[in-house]
Task: structure prediction
Amino acid sequence: MSVVVCKDLVKRFGSALAVDHVNVEIQDGEFMVFVGPSGCGKTTTLRMIGGLETVSSGEVYIDGELVNDVAPRHRDIAMVFQNYALYPHYKVFDNIGYTLKLRKRPKHEIKQRVTDVATMLGIENLLDRWPRQLSGGERQRVALGRAIVRNPRLYLMDEPLSNLDAKLRVQMRREIIRLQRQLGTTTIYVTHDQVEAMTMGDRIMVLRFGQIQQIGQPETLYNQPANMFVAQFIGSPAMNVFPGRLEGTGQELTLVADIGHFLLPPEFVARIGRDSVGPQGPREVMCGIRPEDIRLGSVESDSGRPRALVDLVEGLGSDAYVSLSVGDTMLLARTPADARPTENENVTVDLNLNKLHLFDFESELSLLN
Amino acid sequence: MKRLNLLKWLSIIFFAVPMLFILVFPFMVMVSTSFKTLQEVSQIPPTFIPRQPTLENYREVWEIIPLATHFRNSFLLGLGEVFLIMVLGVPAAYSLARFRYAGRQPYMLFLLVTQMFPAVVVILGLFRLVAAYGLVNNLAVVAVAAASFTMAFCIWLLTGYFSAIPPEIEEAAMMDGNSRLGAMIRMTLPLARPGLIAVAIFAFMDGWNEFLFSLTFISNDQFMPLTVGLFRFISRFQIQWHHLMTGSLLATVVVVALFMMVQSNLTRGMVAISEK
Result:
């Protein structure tokens, strides 16, 4: 079992800075997810941990050992690649058993372990096939089998589900989670899909432009995003964000926005940082509210609330996503399917103010404690 | 549809057949001449089918010149070039395909530029160098000189081929326990086999057909390849066409036989290289 520590990790490709002072510690047995948009440095960070990229500066420790200059084959790490990277000129049996063969394990041991792993993954009937004869899901299982068979101290997975169709992706996601829990091996998983990150990770590290935005448990990132980028990246559909202004002082704060004026509850005000509003006057902020925290009402019954025009209703079976125009502001709300409005209908909008998010207008950092 | 068929047949009759005839005709003349006497060869008007066919040329050509020795030397030249290309060219191509380092792009341009210079431009300087070091009548020197002109093209071909093999396969092998060199040998080279065979055949045929360096650096019968050995049938006053054509035909047959043995690999390799 292992602990992975990255200290001030930097990677440059020429003048381009791909990884910018990443500091992270991954605990023994943890399923850690690196997530972010394309080009954010998550795969580069993973590859530096695996030894497939050199480190420009900084240090990588695995189980307390500095591994910057240690070759990949000596780090006792297994990796699952996005495009599976199966050896096309070896059959499935030899693909899985290759690492054991390199380690000069006896033939009977190789056969036993390969068979055990194949049975675990449900591919025991594929051992005599060539990779080109396999489907995408089967190839992914073989790639997993190749990683599992030698029982390494760390698994690295680089977007292993990206090339699968949606249904298979969900199925394989569950398989990977089950396997990791069964084996208990520390795993670092890279994805650009925040749904994968939220459902799979014990903790998530969000990256952008090579820099860490936030590290935390999925619920923490969802409920307490550190900045606007994390707030909008995590959660599907994305958080609604609109500009506003905080007016008032002390415990009496009013949010003034295009969609309306909202007196903020005292319990919410208590969470706002001390310097958010002060003698200098109203403060410009960015406001965030998740679609499920917007309640829609009928204009006949809720006369005091902001009014909105329904632009589009997208039904998803049990839920519906409702696109609204409130003045110049566009919002997306989520409602139960049986309460969905019709398009071009006027509705009222009720924001759950205790679930509101506030971000500094300039730095986009969260203003909430 | 009818019009397409007509066009097809017209292009076969007026283009393909004449082209085929033009390409095959010299070979047919070579075969025909190898069965003629010198008198019949010199005859006007020339005959295509020998009036008095003879197999004597096939016996005499082995006695007049040390043809077996020339065959051996040509084989050695061909194999020598293949060896040099494989040992030096393959690692060079791999590094160009896989690694990023200062000077890589200029070097690849340099490889292209060297293709613009024919060997004859440097032959005099090379000869003086070879003679100064006492390396005349040395097949290895000829192989090195010939390979140095073929190397650039082979590196270009192989770089393209290696680039098309996903680097993740090697990376997976390195994670599994291979060194970089081990991953190259166990993964990249087997997967690049069609391309390697195509390049090896190209290098062998270049060595087999090598003439300029052999003519310049070798004066001793025992070290002459076929190209120079057969050239000796062309003297100042006469050309021994019947022996020349017989020797050339024998030299061609060997290469054709070799080609047919590896044809499937060659076709696969060249197609793959062109696709990459």
About this structure: Chain A touches chain B through 23 residues (CB under 8 Å). The CA atoms of residues 88 and 132 of chain A lie 7 Å apart. The mean pLDDT of chain A is 92. Chain A has two domains: 4-233, 240-360.
